[in-house]
Structure formats: C-alpha cells, structure tokens
Design brief:
Length: 424
C-alpha cells in the first residue's frame, strides 16, 4: 500500500550516542519548497546528490531518499536486501514515543511489515477478499455515490471539490466495500481520524487519531464475526488462512487508508489538470485521450503518493553510489522516480504512456491485486460522472491561487473551488 503521513520536520536534535548521525549534506525532508514545488527540489537533489540523497526526517532523524527509477525498482524488487520490518532500524534509540511518523514506522502485525511466506499469506487473504468484488457492480455503486454527492451541490452552481467530492467518493466506496454504513457520525469520525493520521494539519494529533482508527476497526471486525455479510471484512474473517482479529484489523486499516486518501488526491490532481491545462482538457474532451489514459498520465506526472517510508537495509550495501549501512531507512521517492530524466529524457510524459509507473509501488510489497484496478474504478467513475453531469465546469479562482497541502508524502490540493451552470 502507499498510504503515508503528512508531517514536516520539527527540529534537528542530534541522535543519541550510538546512532548514526545525519550526513553532513543531508537535506530536510520538509519545507515550503518541497510542499508546493517538489519537482524542482527533486531536480536539485539529483544534481547535487545523484539518485540517492541523504535527508533528515522529523527531529533530525537521518534517512536516504531514493530518487532514481532504476534504484527504486531495485530496492522494491530485492526484499532480501531492503526489507519492510522496521525493527531493523538503527535509529530506534533516537525515536520518541510520540514521534509524528510513528504510526508508519512503528512495527505492527500488519501486512505492511510482514516478509517472506508470512507476507504472501497476508497479502493473499487481502487479494482473495478484493477479488470477490464484482467490478461492474462496484462501478455502479461508485456511480450511485457520485450521483448522491453531486446532488448535494449541483443546484448551487459552485462547489469545493476536494472535500465535497474527490475525497468523499473514495471514502464512501471504501467503507461500503468493508461493510460499514455509508453515512452516520460513526463513519464520519472514522474518516476524519484517518485523515488526521495520514494527512495531519497543524494542531492535529496523528498518533491519537490512529489509536481511534484502530478501536473503530476492532469493533467492525467484532460486528462482522457476529453478523457477516457480502463485504471485504467478512471474507477476510472467513478465509481459510485463519487470520487473528488483530491481523485483520491492521490489514483493514491499510486497505481503507489506501483506498481513501491516495485515491481522493488522484481524483483531485486529475480534475486540476482538466481545469487548468488546455492540452490535457482538449485531449480528453475531444476523445483523443480517454479518462482512463488521463488518469494514468497523472500517476506519472503528479502521483498522489510522493514519497513512501520505507525500507530498511538488511546489511551494508551500495546503492546509487552511496554506502548504505545495515539498518538505515530508505524513503522511496515514487514521484521523483516516475519523472526520472533517465526514462523521460525529453522531460515530457505523454498521455499515451504505459503503466510502468511506480505509483502503486513495485515488487512483492506493491499494492496487492486487484487494489489498483479498484482504485481506478473509483477514480475513473468520479471524473467521468462529474464531466457528464457538469459539462461546463470551470475553475472558480486563478490557477496560481490553488495551493497544495503541506505534505512531503502526499500530493493533493487544499481546495479546488469550481463554478458551473446549476443543475436542478
């Protein structure tokens, strides 16, 4: 999965004795430049550091940012060298219990941290549960949800699409998929806590929010054991692999989070291009490019998951000309890799490109099949339904007024205000 937090550095305190110190040329993985114009920073990092750059995370914690397409592909294809079990990290003595990134690096009995045969077992349960979803029926569900959301604002002639549509649609689709009610205070609280844990704003407590997410999913699993239904949660419970409730809870959190936040930003990033890029909009409206191809282009150019933390070196090894020590953390620079000039020497990614991007990661720990296809169903339905129902939709502000969320992990707009002819 590629769900990641939204936090910026909180200082540069030196690690305790015995922990490797940050590289002297390390770059903070934070700041306004990174949040608003990350591709300029990626170019600068490549120029100054090559395909693997030394960075510092929150609190001055050292790590490596892998920028090259070949290098990210290599790391994700060699689990025996770059593993997912974060207990290998050589920085644990320097990490406080309330570290903002703790929900994403603290070891949990989740499919995200398992390896080898255990990972295959856990990922197999997820794939089997998702494969039972009828994608045609799921598409119809998404159309129904899109219609309900559009009905809430279509008559006003204006809307803020990120909150009212782009994030709301995958959220409702994800909770329906897992067997939760579409609406209600309980569901709304879960979605808000997921947002805080994945994409925290100033004043949010992502660690406390993640605890509440766990508690709600624990109740969901208990409810489905008592009263199973035709949903992902019930199928995971009934799987012959016999996952424990704790394992199912952790894996459901991964499924819901990956379906909601990245997919919402994928929709929003695509709508932004349609409303601000004449080439993009004309190609889609003129039928030269399908909505599916347009969505694929966005994954190359403006992928929702910019950076993913992480992998941990199993032993001392060289990568991209850098000496990586056993236990070092590697952050996967998915956005940088997707726009690597080594694979796009002309600096332009066209709409007819293939799907070899790394937006769903790569290797054994990539998003399990058929999760990417389900995400595509959600995103494609969202964009197609909006264009069909509101054909004259336009941006309600100047393009340069749009701002990105303050995140080095996720790429998504803070808001997307639009105007259109009211539809009764």
């Amino acid at each position: 999965m590629t769900d990641q937090p939204d936090q910026s550095a909180q200082g540069t305190a030196a690690p305790p004795s015995g922990c490797p110190a940050a590289h002297p040329d390390a770059v903070p993985l934070s700041g306004l430049e990174y949040q608003q114009t990350p591709f300029q920073l990626y170019r600068a990092l490549r120029r100054d550091h090559g395909t693997v750059a030394p960075v510092v995370l929150d609190g001055g914690i050292p790590a490596w940012l892998v920028l090259g397409y070949a290098e990210v592909s290599y790391v994700t294809s060699h689990d025996e060298l770059f593993a997912r079990d974060s207990r290998r990290w050589n920085q644990w003595p320097a990490i406080p219990a309330d570290w903002p990134l703790m929900p994403f690096v603290g070891y949990q009995p989740s499919v995200l941290f398992t390896e080898g045969a255990e990972h295959q077992r856990r990922a197999g349960v997820i794939s089997a549960a998702l494969e039972e979803i009828d994608q045609l029926e799921f598409s119809q569900d998404c159309q129904e949800i899109a219609g309900q959301l559009l009905a809430e604002f279509a008559g006003s002639g204006q809307a803020e699409l990120m909150s009212a549509y782009a994030h709301a649609l995958p959220m409702r689709a994800a909770v329906r998929m897992c067997g939760m009610p579409l609406e209600g205070a309980d569901t709304d609280e879960l979605v808000e806590d997921l947002r805080m844990s994945l994409d925290a704003s100033e004043g949010d407590d992502p660690v406390a929010a993640y605890v509440r997410v766990q508690e709600r999913i624990q109740r969901l699993v208990a409810e489905k054991r008592e009263d199973p239904g035709p949903d992902v949660t019930s199928r995971m419970i009934a799987d012959p692999a016999g996952l424990t409730d704790e394992e199912i809870v952790q894996d459901l959190i991964s499924i819901i989070a990956a379906a909601q936040q990245p997919t919402g930003n994928w929709i929003g990033n695509t709508l932004r291009l349609l409303l601000t890029d004449d080439r993009f909009a004309v190609n889609v409206s003129g039928g030269r490019v399908s909505v599916g191809q347009a969505l694929n282009e966005v994954l190359w150019l403006d992928t929702p998951t910019q950076n993913f933390i992480g992998r941990w070196a199993v032993r001392d090894i060289q990568l991209g000309g850098r000496q990586i020590r056993a236990g070092d953390c590697l952050v996967l620079g998915l956005a940088a890799a997707n726009t690597d000039p080594q694979i796009w020497p002309e600096g332009h990614v066209g709409a007819q490109v293939n799907s070899a991007h790394l937006s769903f990661s790569n290797g054994e720990h990539r998003c399990p099949y058929p999760a990417p296809q389900l995400a595509d169903v959600i995103a494609r339905t969202a964009v197609e339904t909006l264009l069909e129902r509101l054909p004259d939709i336009v941006l309600a502000v100047e393009p340069e007024e749009l701002t990105w969320r303050p995140s080095v992990w996720m790429r998504g707009l803070t808001s997307l205000p639009v105007a259109f002819t009211p539809v009764v």
